[in-house]
# Entry
Amino acid sequence: MRLAALSLLVPDYDVGIAFFCGGLGFTLNEDIDQGHKRWVTVSPPAGGPRLVLARPEDAAQRAALGNQAGGRVWLFLQTEDFTRDAARITTAGGRFEEAPRHEPYGTVAVWRDPFGNRWDLIQPAP
# Structure
C-alpha cells in the first residue's frame, strides 16, 4: 500500500486550481465533471501524494474549510530551495506565520494557504 491522495477542502474548484497550479506550479492531473461536483486532483512539481480538491457541500464542510486539522499544521511541503519557494508561496497568496527557523532536521516555517490551511515549508538539512 501507499498513500495516494489527501482530500483538501477549497471554497471553489477553480480557485483551488488557480492557487495550486497557477501559483505554486502543481500539476493538474484530473478535472472531471461529475454533474453535481468535480473530481479534481493536483500534485506537487517534485511528486508525492495528490491533493483531491473538494468543494464543501454542506454547512459542516463549509465550517471545516481551512480547519480540517483542528488548527494544527497537517500538510508538509518539502523543498530544495526554501527562499525561492517561500517567495512563490507569498506571491501566490499564502501567508507565513513566522520567520524561517533552523531545526536539526532543516529550515522550516509555518504558513497558511489562502483557504486557511496550515502547512510547513521544509528544506531538509543536508
